[in-house]
Amino acid sequence: MGIAKGASQDEIKRSYRKLARKYHPDVSKEKDSEERFKEVGEAYEVLKDPEKRAAYDQLGANWKAGQNGFQPPPDWGSGFEFHGGGFTGGSENGAGFSDFFSSLFGQRAGGFQGTHQAQHTQGEDSHAKVFIDLEDAYHGASRSLSLRSTVLGKDGRPEVQTRTLNIKIPKGVREGQNIRLKGQGSPSVAGGKAGDLYLKVEFNPHSIYKVEGADVSLELPITPWEAALGAKVQVPTPAGKIDLKIPLGTSSGKRMRLKGRGIPTKMAGDFYIILEIVLPDKLSDKERSLYEALQQEAGSFNPRVKLGV
Amino acid sequence: MGNEIINIISGVIVEEDDSVSLSTLCRRCSLPSEQVIGMVDQGIIEPLEPQVSSTYWQFSGDSIIRVQEAIRLQRDLGINLPGTALALELLDEVKALRQQVGFLQRD
């Protein structure tokens, strides 16, 4: 948590709150914010209790064995078997980790006291993120997702369970939208139905396309002669190559709109092509003399006339 | 640790749901209706037809996500309801700005 060993309890609380705000998954844009948020929560849970904190202070750097969180020392106390790993679902205990964890730390007991769970017969909802490419949004895709959650094992103790789900990403999904998978959330403790899993869709940045909502845009370089004379060129789109007719007399920055060729959502977005004239790095002697001839011919055209120069 | 069998499952895009009733919204978010109405009062979500009485309120699908976010912020960061409304608005703005910056930086 970035605080010195001798820090006061108040300093610990302040540091926790600051870090919780920083790494909260709804606030942070970091990819690993969920892991960090849970780490911070777990660290605080240890440090805020003077007893546990004393034990931690004694152990020093050796307390955290794995990068996934807290590995308890062998003599920590009986009944404690928290294994680390991600939590899904929520809790009313203020730091976003499950009741199992807090009850464990709170009582250091082998038994589970699910006071929160008693209010709902339904299992908690889970939230996760899934990263896809733009092409997946155009065509749909399958994804294999590994989810770790802490559930009650048969012996009544919390255990980390890994589920692998093969999910279908529907075509036409936009960035930031959520896919609801019914019944794939946390199972219910009271034997009711499981909660739902909400998957938030994020796009991997694309090397050539820019995405804004359902609209996709592409910068298309063209030659000066294509711009001046017009041309038919091939253009890549996430749905495949298409032929584009460039009108003659096109200038840089011209936007062409291909309606309905954006992400195929209910109201399909558009595909925008922004034309950019580019020149070769070097001109041959012949090319240069041709340009000079053109300069002579077209010399009367002043593109800067509006600027008063 | 246990591993379960792989399932192939599809889901629905929550935001594509045109109209969700107040009671469905409450169920999805595990909240009593008073709390959802409290969020409407703060402007966190808005019914499609605000002028009708709350019994007949319908919401767009993205309201579900919004309410879930509001719950998490309140619970995890200890923010009160008006603060949560502000936080969500600011986060929207930050997201939009980040996207714009992303566009500009690309060149």
Provide a descriptive summary of the structure in words.
The complex is a heterodimer of chains A (309) and B (107). Chain A is α+β, with helices and mostly antiparallel strands and 309 residues long. Chain A has helices at residues 9-23, 33-47, 50-59, 99-107, 134-139, 224-229, 285-298; strands at residues 126-132, 141-152, 158-169, 178-181, 197-203, 209-212, 215-222, 231-235, 242-246, 255-258, 271-277. Chain A has two domains: 49-203, Urease metallochaperone UreE, N-terminal domain (HSP40/DNAj peptide-binding domain), CATH 2.60.260; 209-307, Urease metallochaperone UreE, N-terminal domain (HSP40/DNAj peptide-binding domain, Sandwich), CATH 2.60.260.20. Chain A has a four-stranded mixed β-sheet with strand order 6-7-11-10. A three-stranded mixed β-sheet of chain A has the order 1-5-4. Chain A is elongated. The N and C termini of chain A lie far apart (60 Å). Chain B has 107 residues and is mainly alpha-helical. Chain B has helices spanning 22-29, 33-41, 62-77, 81-106, and strands at residues 7-10, 12-13, 20-21, 58-59. A two-stranded antiparallel ribbon of chain B has the order 3-4. In chain B, helix 3 (62-77) packs across helix 4. Chain A binds chain B through residues 17, 20-21, 24-27, 29, 37, 83, 90-92, 94-96, 120, 122, 125, 127, 142, 144, 159-168, 170, 172-174, 177-182, 184, 196-199, 205, 210, 212, 265-266, and chain B through 1-4, 6-16, 28, 30, 65, 68-69, 71-73, 75-78, 87, 91, 98-99, 102-103, 106.
Distance between the termini of chain B: 48 Å
User: Which radius of gyration of chain A do the C-alpha atoms yield?
Assistant: 29 Å
Number of helices of chain B: 4
What is the quaternary state of this protein?
Answer: heterodimer
> How many strand segments of chain A?
11
Structural class of chain B: mainly alpha
Tell me the number of helical segments of chain A per DSSP (H or I, 4 or more residues long).
7
Order of helices and strands of chain A: HHHHEHEEEEEEHEEEEH
